[in-house]
Structure formats: C-alpha cells, structure tokens
From TrEMBL:
Pfam families: Peptidase_M24. This is Methionine aminopeptidase. A divalent metal cation 2 binds at D106, H181, E216, E247. Monomer. Keywords: Aminopeptidase, Hydrolase, Metal-binding, Protease. The keyword Hydrolase applies. Binds 2 divalent metal cations per subunit. Has a high-affinity and a low affinity metal-binding site. The true nature of the physiological cofactor is under debate. The enzyme is active with cobalt, zinc, manganese or divalent iron ions. Most likely, methionine aminopeptidases function as mononuclear Fe(2+)-metalloproteases under physiological conditions, and the catalytically relevant metal-binding site has been assigned to the histidine-containing high-affinity site. It catalyses: Release of N-terminal amino acids, preferentially methionine, from peptides and arylamides. Belongs to the peptidase M24A family. Methionine aminopeptidase type 1 subfamily. It is an enzyme of class 3 (hydrolase).
Length: 283
C-alpha cells in the first residue's frame, strides 16, 4: 500500500523536514578534523531535543544512534562511535531523520572534512547530489516511479569518467542494494525506489498528489556492490572505493513538488531544471 498524504499531513512532514535541515547545518559545521562521529551524533541529538521532535533513527531495528555517519568507503548506516576520528581529507555522509507529531523527515548529505580534497572526491559528491536533483525534477504528476530511477541513472551515466586518483577506479558505481523509499507515518514505506532502471521492476506506481518519497542515490568511485560488516549495520563497498550519499524527502502536490527537507523547499535547485515548486505549506 502506498500512503497518500493530505495537505495537513504534508505540513507536519515539512516541520519534521526543517528539523532534519537543522541537523544537517549543525553537523556540517561540527564535521572538522579531530571530531569523532560520536561528537556529531551528540550535536544531532541536541538539535532534535531543542526542536521538541523525536529521532526516527535511534532504536530503529536496534540502531544505537541518532544519525548515520558513513566515512570514506562506508556507503550507508555507519554507527557513530568514539573511535572514528575525522581526519583532514576524509569525506563523510551524514543521514539524519526526525519525527514531528508522528510524521517523518529523512535526508542525507556528503561533507568534506578539512581542505585539499582530491578532484575525484569533489566530482563524486557533485555527481551524486546532482543525480538526486535530476530524480527530484522527474517527480512530476503523471510520471511513474521508473521515471525517477531513469533520471538518476541517466544523469550519472552522462558524466565523464572520474579521474583515477588515489580513491578511484575511474568509474562511477551506482549502488544496487539500497535505494529510496516512501515516507510518511513511517520512515520506510512503499514504494521502494531504485537508483537505476530494472526491467524486472516494471514502471512502478503512478506519481499522484499526496505521494511522498525519499530520493537517495548512493554512488561509489568503483563498484556497485556492497557488503555489511559484523555489526550488522555498516555497509561498505566491496572494493574499498569511497562513496557519496545524498537524500531529500519530497511531497508531490497539485502545484508541484515540495522538497520537505530543504530550507527553501528546493526552489533554487529545481529552477535550474525548469521545475516550479509548490508553496511552502508552513508559509
């Protein structure tokens, strides 16, 4: 069952989305050389508490933290701890979520720790983020789920091969085992959204008003394959290449999409794609 939201429910999801945006802003500032991933988790906990919201990550399936902190070759679901100390030149993907009155927000971004990052890492993050926006731009009334997958995959495949630097095998790998999802009264709901086109999956659901999705491409500088470490959470690339993860939660309305976890509802970025966003439901 795909959950369709009312305007009032979308407004609550926007509230949760703004808490997630605040977590991103605070953790981005705190992601400096010498900080531990536990430090970042404590920053996120304070933002959630100050907003009077709840964490949707803490305790989810037994997950022990408020955010996921995925460093370098870790793709997703990295667990914050005191042992992982950020170093100059690292990249870190931070996935965060929040609940307001039972409605969820979920978003992720990749940050650069310190300065002097290799060009292939800068390009990796750019391509992953832009593929996300290409997917969001394809979230139009009348389209189907596969149109989002096609836009994400198509954007990545159109990009020049990355330089074969220290962290790269000279290609972009679209991670196959993880993807986007519906979101609303739960963090993970139907439908599952692939970041590539699969003939086995067909066209997927039709995109209609009230549909809410978390669109989240994950891309590596090598393989599309992953493995899960012994903690049953941490997902790494099988070839050790570094990866990037970007995500936003989006609501589709009669007036267009609303990027619920973006401070400006995605207005500036989607304008680059010729897409007009719906008004902020909290304005």
């Amino acid at each position: 069952m795909v959950q369709i939201k009312t305007p009032e429910q979308i407004a609550k999801m926007r509230e949760a989305g703004l808490v997630v945006a605040a977590i991103h802003a605070a953790t981005r500032e705190a992601a400096v050389p010498g900080a531990t991933t536990r430090d970042l988790d404590m920053v996120a906990r304070k933002v959630i508490a100050d907003a009077g919201a709840k964490s949707n990550f803490l305790g989810y399936g037994g997950f022990p933290a408020t955010i996921c902190t995925s460093v370098n070759e870790v793709v997703v679901h990295g667990i914050p701890d005191d042992k992982t100390v950020l170093k100059d030149g690292d990249i870190i993907s931070i996935d965060a979520g929040a609940i307001v009155d039972g409605w969820h927000g979920d978003a992720a971004y990749t940050a650069f720790v310190g300065t002097g990052h290799a060009p292939e890492l800068v390009e990796l993050s750019r391509v992953t983020e832009e593929s996300m926006w290409a997917g969001i731009a394809a979230m139009k009334l009348g389209n189907r789920l596969v149109d989002i997958s096609k836009a994400i995959e198509g954007y990545i495949k159109r990009q020049p091969r990355p330089s074969t630097g220290e962290h790269s095998l000279g290609k972009f790998g679209i991670i196959e085992d993880y993807g986007g999802h519906g979101i609303g009264s739960e963090m993970h709901m139907d439908p599952h959204l692939l970041n590539y086109v699969s003939r086995k999956r067909g066209k997927g659901v039709k995109l209609v008003p009230g549909l809410c999705l978390a669109i989240e491409p994950m891309v590596s500088l090598g393989t599309a394959q992953t493995e899960v470490l012994a903690d049953d959470w941490t997902v790494i690339t099988t070839d050790g290449t570094w990866s990037s993860h970007w995500e936003h939660s989006i609501a589709l309305t009669e007036a267009g999409p609303i990027v619920l976890t973006s401070p400006d509802c995605g207005k500036a970025k989607l304008a680059e794609y010729g897409v007009t966003t719906a008004p902020d439901p909290l304005a």
